[in-house]
Amino acid sequence: MEHSRVTILILSLMISIFQLQLHSSHAIPNQDVSYMKFVHNATDLSTKEEYDYIIIGGGTAGCPLATTLSSKFSVLVLERGSDPNKYPFVLNELGLFNVFTAGDDGKNPSQRFISEDGVENIRGRVLGGGSMVNAGFYSRGHREFFESAGVDWDMELVEKAYEWVEETVVSQPILNAWQSTFRSSLLESGVVPDNGFDLRHLVGTKTGGSIFDNIGNRHGAVEFLNKANTTNIKVAIEATVQRILFSGLSANGVLYSDSKGKLHKAFIRKKGEIILSAGAIGSPQLLLLSGIGPKSYLSSLKLPLVLHQPYVGQSMSDNPRFGTYFILPFPVLPSSAKAVGILQDNIYIQSIASLLPILIPPIFSFLPPGATSIDPSLVVLIGKFSEVHSEGSLRLNSSTDVKRSPIVRFNYYSHPDDLGRCVKGVRKIGDLLKTKTMEKIKTQNLEDNKGFEFLGVPLPENLGNVSAVEEYCKKTVSTYWHYHGGCVVGKVVDGNYKVIGIKNLRIVDGSTFSESPGTNPMATLMMLGRYVGLKLLQQRSNLN
Ligand SMILES: Cc1cc2nc3c(=O)[nH]c(=O)nc-3n(C[C@H](O)[C@H](O)[C@H](O)COP(=O)(O)OP(=O)(O)OC[C@H]3O[C@@H](n4cnc5c(N)ncnc54)[C@H](O)[C@@H]3O)c2cc1C
Ligand SMILES: *[C@@H]1O[C@H](CO)[C@@H](O)[C@H](O)[C@H]1NC(C)=O
Ligand SMILES: *[C@@H]1O[C@H](CO)[C@@H](O)[C@H](O)[C@H]1NC(C)=O
Ligand SMILES: *[C@@H]1O[C@H](CO)[C@@H](O)[C@H](O)[C@H]1NC(C)=O
Ligand SMILES: *[C@@H]1O[C@H](CO)[C@@H](O)[C@H](O)[C@H]1NC(C)=O
User: Fold this and answer.
1) CATH number at residue 538
2) Which UniProt keywords apply (predicted)?
3) Residue 15 Cα to ligand 2 middle (Å)
């Protein structure tokens, strides 16, 4: 007994040291980086070029989309961030810690923002987008998402697109001790059946996929680029798109700046298109800056109007995170989410261990004395739910500087339905804590430290008291980083992701979602990039 604890302690120490090394070393773990052959510094691109497709944002959806289109057409990807290999910590699961503590000097792969609700949040700013800085959990979209997205899905093509994604970036994780414990307690608390390992969305408990392989290497969206037709694709990094250019109501080019501030233009050929994949914050921001948005709002900012579009920047939504943080009586190995409990009404419970500073907003603020930032005994049980009815909006903070983050408000829990779901989820976490598996851990005795030491606001003592749990939900609200909306299907884009009222312009990313798909959205965002790419190839081969 004593022996195994000492071993765990030593392992945790080694991992902490490894984390520090990852932060400072320049070694590139063994990811396939052959895509770097066609990645260029924007400063090296000429000031006027032509392509069939220009994709704004080389992120989670943008990379698979670009790769797919490059099989037949010339493609330019414009990404404001840099090369992920410049930041070794994003390339391994153990570096996840650094994503949240790296600060924000304008050059890091993650950009911090605080919504007007006061909740700290993060956006990807690197080639590969959010998939390079996220927690890596991979799980397909839920049935209701496909039924309500406003899209006439070709479900066979959806299946093919998911499979293409999965063979490139997804691994079956081996659960470490903590993830197994968490999984067992889900089952014990009645989150059944046990669905084993499955990438599909199934009620019950399952192990999901991960873009971290079993030595912890991240396989983010950049790796789709390895499948591109190298003669047809060009990726420009540190290429910040300022606005989309139009001829009347047809998009025909983009204006972007390189890291030296020099302006470049790129145009599309006949039958070509511009596709916005700048994410749920970036895409509505760029539409507004380009003159597509509410007329009176744009004129108040003196932005020239291209099209009056009242819904741009509306329906911004974030899935609130609820949960509890505690210190175990012994250290555990770090792990991001690998298992999930899916309750009947699409409420989800996951757990992360030893990577704690991520989850405590604001960072470091309420750790008790003695608990360090990388406390290897810290674990969290967290939850979210799918159908978020509270909505907010986005507006610009600068009408000239695209680098200035827009102002976002999500209005968490402004709709009473959301509180009801949180209450159910928190109660389930209460059930988990009472399972035999958890009780056994609580009574393990290390230096007289019995039981869990809870951090932050404690769970209400009486989880049967609805108003006490509601209060807890509101007081502890934070983000799962699954914010979406701003350019939703049926309002800003049609069922083919084309911007309504504009020619040659599409949006393919999380800004089009009125609901975040599945337990975690990355799988479906990657699928969507591939899916829309395949659809476009089909349509053009039918035309020719
Ligand atoms: C900390 C964190 C943890 C998460 N954990 C998970 C998880 O475990 N599982 C999961 O499924 N999901 C997770 N997510 C959510 C998921 O990663 C995101 O929803 C997803 O990556 C968003 O994809 P996207 O294609 O919509 O946008 P992004 O991937 O953000 O892509 C947008 C890209 O556009 C670029 N861009 C923006 N503006 C401009 C401009 N003006 N010019 C040029 N380029 C521009 C950005 O730099 C970015 O690269 C997490 C997210 C975060 C932040
Ligand atoms: C691109 O070139 C500029 C100017 O030489 C330089 O400052 C910048 O660091 C380069 N960026 C990358 C990603 O190499
Ligand atoms: C790549 O694109 C070029 C030009 O369109 C084409 O000739 C070539 O066959 C393509 N290669 C592959 C492997 O598809
Ligand atoms: C707008 O940007 C400025 C400068 O970055 C910042 O100080 C301010 O807080 C922002 N406003 C809002 C409402 O976020
Ligand atoms: C339920 O919680 C509320 C809010 O904390 C409290 O005011 C009330 O007294 C509690 N009711 C019972 C029956 O405990």
Assistant:
1) 3.50.50.60
2) Disulfide bond, FAD, Flavoprotein, Glycoprotein, Lyase, Signal
3) 33
Cα 261 to Cα 37, 244, 256, 258, 450: the distances in Å are 24, 17, 9, 5, 58
| Best residue among 419, 457, 461, 467 to mutate for probing ligand 5, ranked by most atoms within 8 Å of CB | 467
Q: CB–CB of 154/308 below 8 Å?
A: no
Protein residues with CB under 6 Å of any ligand 5 atom: 462, 465, 467-468, 471
Q: Which domain holds residue 255?
A: 2-171+212-318+392-411+480-543
CA of 146 to the centre of ligand 1 (A): 21
Q: Is 481 annotated as a binding residue?
A: yes
Q: What is the pLDDT of residues 248-268, one digit of tens each?
A: 999 999 999 999 999 999 999
Considering only CA atoms, which residue is closest to atom 13 of ligand 4?
Answer: 407
Residues of the chain with pLDDT under 50: 1-27, 356-372
State the Cα–Cα distance between residues 352 and 354, nearest whole angstrom: 7
SS3 325: strand
My answer on whether 314 and 329 are in the same domain is no
Q: Are residues 252 and 308 in the same domain?
A: yes
pLDDT, tens digit, 9 for 90 and up, residues 271-300: 999 999 999 999 999 999 999 999 999 999
Q: Probe ligand 3: pick from 232, 233, 234, max atoms within 8 Å of CB?
A: 232
Whether the Cβ atoms of residue 427 and residue 313 lie closer than 8 Å to each other = no
Record the tokens describing residue 233, joined without a space. 């694709």
Q: Residue 118 and residue 475: Cα distance in Å, rounded?
A: 11
Cα–Cα distance for residue pair 332/323, rounded to 1 Å: 19
Q: Are residues 160 and 271 in the same domain?
A: yes
CATH number of the domain where residue 369 is located:
3.30.410.40
- Written as six digits, the tokens of 312 are 């741009």
Same domain for 337 and 248: no
Instruction: Characterize the bridge pairing of strands 478-479 and 320-327.
Output: antiparallel
